[in-house]
Amino acid sequence: MLVKTNRQFTILTIGLALVSFAGCSGSSDYPEAFKSRFVYSDRTDSLIAEAQNGIGELPGVKKLVDDRFGDPQDLMAWTKLPIDFGGISGKLAETPDASIAVKELKISFDGELATAENETILLQFVTGTAAPSVVVVNAWQPETGLASLSAAMEVAPAAGDEVIVGGGQKLVHGRGLYMRHCSHCHGTSGDGAGPTAQYLTPRPRDYRHGVFKFTSTDALSKASKDDLSRVLRNGIPGTYMPSFVPMLNEDDLADVVEYVRFLAMRGEFERKVVSELASDYSEEAVKSRRDSGESRKDIVEELKSFLAEDMQDSLEFVTDDLSGRWDSANSEDALVVPEIARVEDTIESRRIGRELYLSKTINCADCHGISAKGNGPQTTIYEENPVTKQLYTEPGLHDVWDNVNQPRNLTQGIYRGGRRPIDLFRRIHAGIKGSRMPSFKNLKHEDIWHIVNYVLSVPFNAEPGHAPVATSEDPATAASL
Ligand code: HEC
Ligand code: HEC
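# heme C complex -> structure
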């Protein structure tokens, strides 16, 4: 449910206590972790203090982020984001007579508002003049939609105003599960730096780039909710990322996925806001500006007018881009769907696939090697870090997280994004996002299938180029689309 509003930001405070988790088995291991706070990125910390903390009334990066996302103990539901925060939303059906004290409201809810007897219903205004106030409903008549309030409203609302009951429940539930099951690897803020992370290769994903590797969506799209829940169901084979089925049920999975998306959007928002400021207002940039004669006072004055004016436009752009892209990843248009069914897995198809694999235009071998062991020429070069412009100290390709990005050894038959032929089709079509495995979306779908047939045959061939048809026990060929 996305509560759309006309205001630029509607922010609901949904800070709820963690009461419901107390006493659950295992929670006693993490009482401190449960209380941990979000941290800011190193890039935020590299800005001058005024850019981090703001100037006078003008917010800097930290407040811009906190106002929209809050803190684990006091989460914000920024309704501009395409996140299902939970709760039932509705609209005021009639404008109450403002000449008398408003103690009754007529509301139509989008779903069924199930309430236990004597349960206090908290109704929060999301839009309109009464937003973001919360009123207490004493009695609720589902038949007529009439809510009797415990006290008269201070500001009279109007028909069409949006309200929500139980806002944030899903997110708070997702947070609890995340803190218990994920944060020791992925970190409270989703920075991939939990206490266990240092021992793991590959490192747990840092969500804050807003990039996930193994998706069913096209090369330019974000991960869909289905992609993230598939990762939680299956784990990531060949890594420490475990499967959470049957430990988590369907509702749990959905809620923890929303929380991961929330953390990813928080991180990405912070990154993008910092990017607006980093080139002129990082400590380093300001130092070199001062070396070339500018005064710090003038630089801060300039920053002040930047925060007051240009930053407002940037925020609007960043917000629309963020919510649009995360939303559209869930649409059917974003899904990679082969135009033709899998080409029959014959010796001939595998041979064509291998030729394409080795060809100079497609050149999978440049990274994965002629023998497909993940040892192509690209693994020995020294690359430049795109941000610092320095050479990395270790040879090989690097992903957007600056980790060494080893091309997969295809002779092992372990596929992190799933082993079904359709998974491999999508991997080749869309690439592996944030990694150096490129998208081959311009290839004919028939050719991608030939390559899939070849790749799936690699673990069963002693000699490269020798491609017998697999037996019926061969799980790779037995798996169907
Ligand atoms: C034991 C450590 C560990 C735990 C616990 C763990 N993860 Fe992971 N997770 C990893 C590692 C390692 C990776 C990176 C694998 C890779 O790069 O291929 C990862 C990757 C991911 C990804 C990225 C998928 C992609 O396509 O990029 C998501 C999403 C994720 N984990 C979510 C979770 C959630 C949610 C939980 C808790 C329910 C969780 N993880 C628990 C270690 C862990
Ligand atoms: C520029 C280097 C590069 C090229 C070219 C390249 N790959 Fe990759 N490939 C990688 C890297 C790096 C990874 C590991 C990515 C990761 O998991 O972070 C990878 C991973 C893979 C995987 C593993 C998928 C999974 O789910 O684990 C397959 C399969 C694969 N590549 C096939 C191919 C094929 C087929 C081609 C040619 C059509 C190709 N690659 C071209 C770098 C490359």
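# post-check
The pocket of heme C (ligand 1) is lined by residues 181-182, 185-186, 196, 200, 202, 204-205, 212-214, 228, 231-232, 236, 239-242, 244, 256, 260, 416 (CB under 6 Å).
The two ends are 32 Å apart (CA to CA).
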